[in-house]
Design a protein that fits this description.
By secondary structure, the chain is mostly helical. The protein has helices at residues 2-22, 27-48, 50-84, 87-103, 110-119, 123-133, 139-148, 154-165, 169-190, 207-214, 225-260, 262-277, 284-290, 294-302, 308-321, 323-333, 341-366, 378-381, 389-428.
């Protein structure tokens, strides 16, 4: 029955699409018809299943309040302050020699990348949007940054998925390593995105003197710290409320899609692809769910009957893809800019593909044993699994934000040393 309902829904959208094309409807009108049909279905499904919708919304609310909110709040506030105090300008000038040759972006692009890999979705996209709005980078450079600065965090991959779901420490490590390698590879590819807009790095002996003068603390234009702090808190809370709304919304949407049989219908189409590739059939439905929401998808993938290596590869691909729930959060973060969501989604497809390939290569050639079960680190990696979830997650957020700053400072210090050595070597040449 559910499978039949899912087929009817897909057929209805196909008919709407065909109707719009055949009558040459205006693109805006056509989009409005699609959105209206989706909203009507969504509202009707909630009315038909109020109890299940309520439970799904409550689950999403608990996830946001106990885990997401306290974990991301320090990153959001800290990032706002560092951008407005122009600390990012200083770090950007010092890290320009690394970021420009590798990714064809300004040095300040190192900030959202490091913040993203230590905290997770959607911190990187929020910081990139902030840098673009502050005119720290061009539109093309911001688009390049989005391609590799939107990543999951180690807490989710190594803790929640690796140890909490797979019961395998090595599995989480493989997922995390392949995830970040996939992000870097995507960034290396997108450095060629609209190459005509390339900028040039500055490699002079006065680079770091200029960087020091960029510091907002030393200029009279810097606004009072109290004002900057209040603005940072206000903007961060607004962003977190928006993220929470999307988490709750997609918790309900995923639940309704499962009830309606829409997910099962998609999984039947995925089976047509999986069968020739030798992929376990039990992964079809979990991957279909993961296309929309990665936490639910990861849970279903790890609970499937597939072999462990296939679970790891599938989880790596789904987490890198991000799911439509994450895409909606990113869309909200960049809504005040003219950055393209189409280009971003294309980059996430690359990210998902590369992460799966890297996971396969690591398993294939590193010969990591996947048979042992290790759960002893679960409580230490998952702070919110114990006692006071909110305070534990908040403490973890501050700790990881500090780690991010330390990593940035180390990279900046190394760049300063390399730059100084290059100047000395040039002077020693005959």
């Amino acid at each position: 029955m559910h499978y039949l309902l899912g087929c009817i829904l897909i057929l209805a959208f196909i008919l709407i699409y065909a109707y719009g094309k055949s009558f040459a409807l205006d693109s805006k009108l056509f989009r409005k018809i699609i959105i209206t049909a989706g909203v009507i279905f969504f509202t009707g499904a909630i009315i038909a299943s109020p109890e299940k919708s309520f439970n799904a919304a409550l689950q999403g609310l608990n996830t946001w309040f106990n885990i997401v909110c306290p974990s991301l709040l320090p990153f959001f506030i800290g990032a706002e302050l560092m951008i407005n105090l122009k600390v990012v300008d200083v770090l950007g000038m010092m890290l320009e020699p690394i970021m420009r040759p590798l990714f064809n972006v300004p040095g300040c692009g190192s900030f959202p990348f490091v913040m993203s890999i230590t905290s997770g979705y959607p911190v990187g996209s929020k910081i990139v949007a902030g840098l673009y709005e502050q005119k720290k980078c061009s539109r093309i450079e911001a688009q390049r940054l989005l391609s590799f600065c939107s990543t999951s965090g180690p807490l989710f991959m190594m803790g929640a998925v690796g140890i909490g779901m797979l019961n395998l420490k090595a599995g989480g490590t493989i997922i995390a390593v392949s995830h970040y390698l996939g992000a870097i590879t995507t960034g290396l590819i997108f450095k060629f995105y609209k190459r005509k807009n390339d900028g040039k790095a500055v490699f002079t002996s006065t680079t770091y003197k200029k960087a020091a003068r960029l510091n907002g603390f030393l200029t009279s234009e810097t606004k009072p710290l109290g004002y900057l702090l209040s603005e940072a808190v206000k903007n961060s809370v607004n962003s977190l409320l928006m993220v929470g709304g999307f988490i709750i919304l997609f918790s309900v949407i995923i639940n309704l899609l499962i009830i309606s049989g829409f997910i099962d219908t998609i999984s039947h189409f995925l089976l047509l692809i999986f069968s020739p590739l030798g992929i376990d059939k039990s992964l079809a439905s979990p991957i279909a769910s993961g296309l929309f929401e990665i936490t639910i998808g990861s849970k279903l993938i790890t609970a499937s009957k597939a072999l462990m290596y296939q679970k790891i590869i599938a989880s790596s691909g789904i987490i890198a893809w991000g799911g439509f729930s994450i895409h909606a959060q990113v869309a909200s973060m960049i809504s005040n800019t003219d950055l393209s969501m189409k280009t971003y989604i294309a980059s996430k497809l690359f990210h998902g593909l590369f992460s799966s390939i890297y996971a396969y290569l690591i398993i294939r050639f590193a010969k990591i044993p996947l048979g042992s079960v290790e759960t002893f680190l679960y409580d230490s990696i998952m702070p919110y699994a114990s006692g006071n979830a909110w305070l534990s997650s908040l403490s973890w957020g501050f700790e990881k934000f500090t780690d991010s700053l330390i990593i940035l400072l180390i990279f900046a210090f190394l760049c300063a040393i390399v730059s100084k050595l290059s100047v000395i070597l040039r002077r020693l040449r005959p």
